[in-house]
């Protein structure tokens, strides 16, 4: 493994909306073994504030479900379940196809081609299958060094998945070897890594990537959405719920209010599942208190400009549990 350069950025495997993957046999190693020969494929959450734990959903992703979501720079996807010759094919394997929560799984990327695979071991991605499509869970942000996996070499991630510590206010998942992702509920998951081949025919290479993925099941209850320990007080003012909370990233910053307003007509909402909501603060606190409210106001601080990163000119909105909300923010007196 060699490091070439270092940048900071957003995880490439989880940044955008749905895109297909093309079976492009020209992406293989030139004049030798095709690193992905013959294995390419196209690419009920509880309501807000519901603490009830329910059983693992029976949904199974169909073979041709678009994967990974939101990628226009991917030419092919190689699923481990479709690899017929592991010794002669570059692939991502797993230590188990099923685990019980909390639990651990190891995933190994093996380069069986005759050339370097250009990648970033920080830029793995975990997806959850829910509501008929794959949804990116973690990580949200990654370091961006360019790394290589040499011919014959492998790299292993040991991933711990947890369904506890629900009151933790902020969750961060990162790393190149030992990774913890929590909280997650029972269901179907996929782990994926991407990259491109040294001297491949398609250029620019970073716009013609290969994704290596493995799907597995996590056995456990569905994840409830509950407020975090950052909440210090709540009160109700008519149809509005006011939540007072300490910013888990530190109290220094601008006193501000994060506003979630029920609006079924809001245009272009992002549809979220519980595992995603837990990773967006203070949205997580607002949705956890939204049951029966027309508006939720989270009074806290923020060190981000614009406030909480909310660009109101873009009319941000989310859908969760079948309900749609507009997002806003305003400064308040300290």
Q: Could you say which structural class the secondary elements and strand pairing correspond to?
A: mainly beta
Q: First CA to last CA: what distance? A: 50 Å
Number of helices: 2
Instruction: Determine the mean pLDDT.
Output: 85
Output the helix-strand order.
EEEEEEEEEEEEEEEEEEHHEEE
When the domains are counted, the total is 2
Describe the structure.
The chain is mainly beta and 334 residues long. The chain folds into 2 domains: 3-219, Sandwich (Immunoglobulin-like), CATH 2.60.40.2550; 231-331, no CATH class. The protein is 3% helix and 40% strand. It contains 2 helices and 21 strands. It has helices at residues 274-277, 283-288; strands spanning 3-10, 40-41, 74-79, 91-94, 98-100, 103-110, 117-119, 125-130, 133-138, 141-149, 154-161, 178-181, 187-197, 209-219, 231-237, 240-245, 254-262, 270-272, 295-302, 317-320, 323-331. The strands form 3 sheets. Strands 1, 2, 3, 5, 7, 8, 9, 10, 13 and 14 form a 10-stranded mixed β-sheet that branches. Strand 20 and strand 21 (323-331) form a beta hairpin. The longest helix is centred in the last third of the chain and has 6 residues, at 283-288. The chain is elongated, with a radius of gyration of 21 Å. The chain starts with a strand and ends with a strand. Residues 1-11 and 15-54 have low confidence and may be disordered.
